[in-house]
Design brief:
With about 120 residues, the chain is of the alpha+beta class. The chain has helices spanning about 5-20, 40-60, 90-100, 105, and strands spanning about 25-30, 60-70, 80-90, 110-120. The protein contains 4 helices and 4 strands.
């Protein structure tokens, strides 16, 4: 027995049916390399990285992303030490394909990363 009746049942079925056709969501948690040249590689690669991620956002593959900082706040003393990106893709393999050409991967900014299934529940 459904908790939804009448009009709400139709809306609920449509909602669940449409969500079944959506691509999966994935979170990428990437750690920057720890060597002394890593911050400079990040700065040199940043514009190209952001350009690529903007293209992926326009295509609907990148939901959101940002830098992991070494401490809270936006003061000039904070250092970027990694990245988080939430992707929408059919599989983990598709996410790996999306990041393999990222300047942060090509230029060894990221030393390691994890890709995990994720679900955005609240959007701004």
């Amino acid at each position: 027995m459904s908790i939804f009746t009448g009009h709400f049942a139709v809306l609920a079925r449509r909602s669940f049916a449409s969500s079944a056709r959506r691509q999966d969501q994935w979170i990428l948690i990437a750690n920057d390399a720890a060597d002394s040249d890593a911050p400079m590689r990040r700065l040199r690669s940043r514009e190209a990285h952001l350009a690529l991620q903007s293209q992926l956002k326009e295509s609907g593959s990148n939901i959101l992303g940002g830098a992991i900082l070494d401490r809270p706040g936006s003061d000039e003393g904070s250092k970027m030490i990694g990245s988080v990106i939430i992707f929408e893709a059919d599989s983990r393999t598709d996410v790996e394909k999306l990041i393999k050409d990222d300047p942060y991967v090509k230029n060894n900014v990221w030393s390691s990363w994890e890709i995990k299934p994720f679900r955005v529940t609240l959007k701004k």
